[in-house]
Amino acid sequence: MQFVFKAKDERGTTIKGVIEALNEGQALEILRKRNLVILDLKEAIGGEKGKIKISFTKEKVSSKDMVIFSRQLAVIISAGLPLVQALETLVGQTGNKYLDKIIGKIADEVRGGTRFSSSLERYPKIFDKFYVYMVRAGEVSGKLDEVLSYLADEKEKSYDLERRIKGAMIYPVFVLVTVVVIMILLLTFVIPQITSLITEGGGEIPLPTKIVISLSDFLRHKWYIILGLVGVLFIFYFFLANSSKGKPIWDRLVLKIPVFGPLFQKVSLVRFTNSLSTLIVGGIPLPQALKITADIVGNVCYQKIILETIRNVESGSSIATAFLSSPLIPKILSHSLIVGEQTGKLDEVLSKMSSFYSQEVENTLSQLVSLLEPIIIVVLGVVVGGIVLSVFMPIYQLASIQF
User: Degrees (nearest 5) of the Cα angle 299, 305, 309?
Assistant: First the structure.
């Protein structure tokens, strides 16, 4: 059982924390042996056990914040400072007020006798299973500073990958938004002013011009329909991407998107190989390491393959059994895993494959940007040019008739 306590130490400082005990009496005895004056003690149940709920607005911890926290904590611990003091030193130093608050709570819990990894486990939206199990391995081996430094490196790699993907998408998204804005401005402000000139001039209006005028009228007078459709699409996307029933469908669709599908496949492979390699190096048993990797791989399709692999490994089969029969796993990776198992160097093979797929992601991103730039420019020219041409066609015809 876990108990939340509030007490004063020998210096009169009020401290809070969480301890583990069989019952309340044992919890009191543990605290008294630490020369603490108990102010409050109660069982940690329900909301008290988690204590903190993370929202998606103000209370958010980014990958960059985690890199800074892990790196700073590793440096301070390696300098010889006790863990509790190291955590207290970091409060106010991460640049994220919410993370600072959580670090302060973790420091109180560790001072109260809770293991560092157990305290981290209470905040799963900040510290995932991968992070917790690596810290636990560091506690057991007595190399917590090395593990934290290693975690900082891995988090930094993950952060750099996310940043490169987002950076590659900025230009295409910017151009697409520009196209939409230009179309809206043309159809709502420019076209209505020219429409009267076109209709009053008489003569037959070309079909492209009729289409543009109809679009302009629809956008100006029935804009709420478009807004409603956008809302429906957003809700549909949210259901697919986040619900337990919709996410498997969404993840399968994502992998089949032309051009982008192979990129997302490689990103999932990077997460799988890198995470599993790190966990094996940390001394986590293979079935447990695979289970943790399945939780953080980020795609349900790959998660199912890994869960099937766990069953194969526990029954004595090769780790590559499920991979060999899956079209989502490249043959080179499956055969490399077999070699890693046979030579006893599975972690090294996974690390090399992670580097290989990271480079593949980098190459794919470069090719994607190079391919999208001319396509988007052509689309922009065709859309804007088509609208302008459809407007000036009847004006040109009127001018020809008059002369």
Answer: 135
CATH 1.20.81.30 in the chain, residue ranges: 157-403
Q: CA 310, CA 294: separation in Å to the nearest integer?
A: 10
> What's the pTM value of the predicted model, to 2 decimals?
0.67
Taking alpha carbons only, the member of 52, 42, 45 closest to residue 16 is 42
Task: Find out whether 296 and 128 touch, Cβ atoms under 8 Å.
Answer: yes
DSSP letter at 41?
E
Which one, of 13, 9, 6, lies nearest residue 36 by Cα?
9
Predicted confidence (pLDDT) per residue in 105-141, tens digit: 898 888 888 889 888 988 888 888 888 888 888 888 7
Rounded Cα–Cα distance for residues 294 and 292 (Å)? 5
Residues facing residue 291 across a β-bridge = none
> How would you classify the pairing of strands 37-43 and 14-20?
unpaired
Could you give phi then psi for residue 56, rounded to 5 degrees?
A: -95, 10
Q: How many of the other CB atoms lie within 10 Å of CB of 59?
A: 17
The DSSP letter of residue 14 is E
Q: Which residues neighbour 142 within 8 Å (Cβ) at sequence distance 6 or greater? A: none
- Judged against a pLDDT cut of 70, whether residue 56 lies above it is answered with no
Please give the Cα distance from 26 to 127 (Å, whole number).
30
Q: State CA 365 to chain mean position distance.
A: 18
DSSP state of 329: S
Distance, first Cα to last Cα, the chain:
95
CATH number of 157-403: 1.20.81.30
Q: Is 344 helix (H, G, I), strand (E, B) or coil?
A: coil
